[in-house]
Amino acid sequence: MNRYIRQTVLKDLGPSGQNALSEAKVLILGCGGLGSPLALYLAAAGVGRIGLVDGDLVELSNLQRQILYVEKDIGREKSLAATERIRSVNSNVRSDTFSKRFDWSWALDVAPDYDVLVDGTDNFSAKFLINDVSSNYRSLWFTVQFQNLKADLGRFQERKVLVIVVCTQKVLCPLCKIARRPECLVRSLEW
Predict the structure, then answer these.
(1) Long-range contacts of range 84-87, CB-CB < 8 Å, 24 or more positions apart?
(2) pLDDT 10s digit of each residue in the chain, 191 long?
(3) Given its phi and psi angles, is residue 101 left (phi above 0), alpha (psi -120 to 50 degrees) or beta?
(4) Residue 43 and residue 92: Cα distance in Å, rounded?
(5) CA 94, CA 154: separation in Å to the nearest integer?
(6) Which of 79, 110, 119, 191 could be cross-linked to 143 through a Cys-Cys bond (beta carbons 3.0 to 4.6 Å apart)?
(7) Exposed e or buried b for every residue in 50-64, given b needs 16+ CB within 10 A?
(8) pTM (two decimals)
């Protein structure tokens, strides 16, 4: 517990909160600009199990924003390089590596093993899949989207929007942002 002494002295966390963190299981979908710092911070904080899903390879252009990776990782699978890095940050963290895209062929087998799904993907079809999978298991999931210097953050559970923090002008579901159809606006209100 010495490792986490700076956290356990926090009134709102304490030893019981740290124990809860060590029992937590988080699946990070996408180990890029959003998933990579999250993985580092969760490992450093002592989250007990972290699943890393990414089917891409590390590229030179990733290094300025995807802080999990260094030059020697170029050409390697992101999820493998990420797993090695978080284990070097905290060897007490169990990490699961999935070097493939999140899709229906295996999503329903893996998602129930985690308490929280975090969407760090960069495409809407993945976001819809994550929503469907988390709805199926009533899992909590978070999504973040960046476009230029604007960001959207959402927290979802059981197909209902619980919290939305928005830096853009409008709050729309991902389908609305693509199609801008009136029926999408109705759907986003009924979630």
Answers:
(1) 85/39, 85/40, 86/39, 86/40, 86/42, 86/43, 86/50, 86/52, 87/43
(2) 689 888 888 888 888 888 888 999 999 999 998 899 999 999 999 999 999 999 999 999 999 989 999 999 999 999 999 999 999 999 999 999 999 988 888 888 898 899 888 888 877 778 778 877 777 766 666 666 555 555 555 555 554 433 333 333 344 445 444 444 444 443 433 33
(3) beta
(4) 9
(5) 26
(6) 119
(7) bbbbbeeebeeebee
(8) 0.77
> What Cα–Cα distance (Å) separates residue 176 from each residue in 46, 51, 116, 147?
37, 30, 25, 16
**Two structure tokens written together for 47:** 């989250």
Q: Which helix (H) or strand (E) holds 112?
A: none
User: 55: which strand partners?
Assistant: none
Rounded-to-integer distance, Cα 80 and Cα 99, Å: 7
Give the separation between CA 52 and CA 43, rounded to whole angstroms. 12
The amino acid sitting at 77 is E
Q: Taking a C-beta distance cutoff of 8 angstroms, is the pair 87, 95 a contact?
A: yes
Distance in angstroms (rounded) separating the CA atoms of residues 12 and 7? 9
* Strand intervals (E) in 30-127: 49-53, 94-98, 116-119
